[in-house]
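Re: duplicated header lines in exported structure tokens

Our pipeline writes sequence and tokens for each protein into one text file. With two proteins the header for the second block appears twice in some exports. Here is an export where it did not happen, for reference. First protein block:
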Amino acid sequence: MGLIGAGQRGGITMLHQWVAADNLRVTAVCDPVKDKALAAQATVERAGKNTPAVYANGDHDFENLVKRDDVDLVYIAAPWHVHVPAAVAAMEHGKHVLVEVPAATTIEDCWKLVDTSERTRKHCMIAENVCRDRRPSCTRSTGRTPRAC
């Protein structure tokens, strides 16, 4: 798996989940802020896993990550404006994509994701997890605030 966006969501919150999976290898991490990319690399290493390659050479270095042969899934947790270009680049290079919300901010960009996924036959999944969080469902079913649930 390749990680694009090693900040709060990608590099801190979700990366710990990814490295805990027995059947998943994080082979590359990318963030234009080199310290964040190196911190993500260190997180993978501390988990006793392989040392992932680091891509931290500017805002478009994700284009190099998606060219790797040892990446079959790209998880995108970068700033919103990166979501569509990174997802399209990943699918164009034969990778499946898991992209944080919002996957796109315009209808036109939504169609870019759909069209690219259909043309390349690669999955593009939106990582929306609020629907699995107990608090919103508790609020809907009981009318109580999340703290009361």
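Second protein block, exported in the same file:
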Amino acid sequence: MIIVDTALEQRERDGKPIRIALIGAGYMGRGIARQIIIRTMGMRLVGISSRSVSDALRAYSEAGIDEVATVESVQTLEDSIASRGAAVTEDPLLLCRAANVDAIVDVTGDLELGARMALEAFAHGKHVILLNAELDATVGPILKTYADRAGVVVTYSDGDEPGVAMNLYRTVRTMGFQPVMMGQIKGFLDRYRNPDTQRAFAEQHSQKPASVAAFADGSKLNVESTMMANATGFTPVSRGMRGPQCAHVKDMIGSFSADELLAGAPEIDRARCREVFEQRFTARRMAEDYVRIYEELIARGAQRKTGT
């Protein structure tokens, strides 16, 4: 059996730390950078990518590292890592392609970019750890297929709700019990919260108003529950989920019938879901939508120039 802490200690003693590259230097990204640099033996944060290099530099600086190289090519990045330096870049794909990076941590929250980065990382033999719930909920099972083909691992992070819930799920199964329902408890839920109502709180805690609104209005619960459903095969009790109020977690049992708990909740028609998805999100349909948007923007620009 491999215990994570002792395995990392051994890598530290052997001088072979896991070389981590971080993509995203926002609130969560900076926290991860500090954790790896200051607290975690057996790992080394070799590079950070962000749309703004200043944010990547800030992440290193807050962890006590001020001597950082800004790189624009795979070769200069690899040279920095080989010399045990720290590097930042605006191009996340450089981190995915560098030969001396072992694993990528995605903290972007960006669906399209996250998918591109994951596939590029797989193509170059790198493991991917996600703190990108939007990506995992949408195409997580697809990414798992590509990762398996490449012989690497794609996983969500431990410590956040979906990862903790999956650990509990596996523990219960190991004990010989059959899990019949999964969910999350929310101490505060107001479905009418929005970025404007959460702006002051977000600014106070250096977070984005849209993200804080998702924490309060139930969006985050739905996204993370989707990840749990994808991992276990569980299906929603109802569209949009269901959340009975209760004073204690034990009261949840009385909120669902025995048939729901033991026989499973009514399943969503997966064939119909796939049919609708293919109608709305095929490559051709999405390309046509993009072309239509570009044509509208060009037409508006022409109108402004002519004054019509």
